[in-house]
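Here is the promised in-class demo. Please do not try to memorize the tokens; focus on the logic of going from shape to residues.
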């Protein structure tokens, strides 16, 4: 067995972390090219500048368009060279972070990631997903290093829309089931090795944390309050799921997401929301025991994750749509990480079974609810 684990050099998380950025950067650099949207600059720029200045550092802003493309990476790379910066920071959501990461990789520059949402597990990883100008995925780039520092300010995350935290839980929900499948198949993970006990244990801890704290964390996020439950879930969504998927493995849940991402019907959904439905589909493919399926359905409905086609905004999807998604899911390389062969017909049937189970669960929940 070839065991490989990848992780960020340092992971720091606490309320108000943004105001300590300069202190945590330390010797990493003095002039920081900050990749962020104009909206993020408005919200966080002054505090970041103040924190850097207090440590004798300076920020140069690289205005980000909102899409991680070859062009946006080149733009950040050129601005870095022109401004005499000696490190890069990505402040924002997934695409901002991926742009900063790809630029830092091209330049060999130290990298700080400061996620402002907890909607996915990308911040800790070494992957950048580059899009073409039309928005389709053009390249998944594995960078040489994971971030030197991931700094998570839970106060900022608590201010973001609760739906984003919920989506992050959908992404994090897949981590254990995909690591388990990858361990069973012996498939190569994103780090190029195989899933060992460490990654599987982190993935299990991620799942247990979601079950224990997810519902409370979502309630607290609705009140924009940092609580222990919210802190635990942010840690699960960003760190445990990030290291868990990269060193554990990705399988059918993400392959189903890749399938859905080829159809316009999914454009209003977040990555984690589709991945959540991918988990249900994977459990159907695996013929998972009834108690595991109901545990997952119970969790998903408690944290507002869609469990049926209707909740995904695709009431009664056509057979053509389901076939197209199934074909694309099986064309995704990560489907091959499952411990058994999976055909498009298997995926189509599993998605229908997932929808039926989700719909029945919702109906039962409605019946059980006190009037
Ligand atoms: Zn994901």
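The designed amino acids, position by position:
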């Amino acid at each position: 067995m070839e065991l490989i684990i990848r992780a960020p050099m340092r992971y720091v998380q606490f309320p108000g972390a943004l105001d300590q950025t300069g202190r945590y950067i330390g010797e990493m650099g003095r002039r920081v090219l900050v990749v962020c949207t104009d909206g993020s600059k408005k919200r966080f720029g002054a505090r970041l500048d103040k924190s850097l200045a207090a440590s004798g550092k300076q920020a140069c802003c690289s205005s980000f368009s909102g899409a991680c493309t070859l062009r946006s990476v080149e733009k950040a790379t050129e601005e870095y060279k022109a401004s005499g910066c000696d490190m890069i920071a990505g402040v924002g959501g997934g695409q901002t972070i991926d742009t900063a990461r790809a630029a830092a990789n091209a330049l060999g520059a130290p990298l700080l990631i400061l996620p402002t949402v907890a909607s996915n597990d990308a911040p800790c990883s070494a992957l950048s997903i580059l899009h073409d100008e039309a928005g389709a995925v053009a390249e998944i780039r594995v960078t040489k290093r994971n971030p030197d520092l991931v700094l998570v300010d839970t106060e900022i995350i608590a201010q973001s829309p609760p739906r984003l935290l919920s989506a992050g839980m959908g992404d994090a929900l897949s981590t254990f089931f995909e690591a388990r499948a990858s361990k069973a198949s012996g498939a190569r993970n994103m780090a190029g090795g195989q899933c060992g006990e460490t990654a599987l244990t982190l993935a299990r801890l991620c799942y247990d944390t979601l079950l224990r704290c997810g519902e409370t964390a979502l309630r607290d996020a609705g009140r924009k309050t940092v609580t222990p439950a919210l802190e635990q879930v942010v840690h699960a969504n960003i760190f445990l799921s990030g290291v868990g998927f990269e060193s554990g493995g990705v399988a059918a849940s993400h392959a189903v997401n890749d399938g859905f991402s080829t159809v316009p019907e999914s454009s209003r959904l977040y990555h984690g929301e589709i991945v959540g439905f991918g988990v249900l589909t994977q459990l159907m493919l695996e013929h998972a025991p009834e108690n595991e399926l109901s545990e997952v359905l119970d969790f998903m409905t408690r944290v507002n994750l869609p469990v049926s086609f209707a909740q995904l905004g695709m009431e009664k999807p056509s057979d053509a749509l389901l076939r197209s998604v199934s074909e694309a899911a099986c064309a995704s390389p990560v489907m091959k990480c499952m411990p058994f062969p999976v055909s498009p017909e298997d995926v189509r049937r599993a998605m229908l079974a997932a929808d039926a189970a989700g719909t029945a669960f919702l109906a039962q929940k409605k019946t059980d609810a006190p009037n």
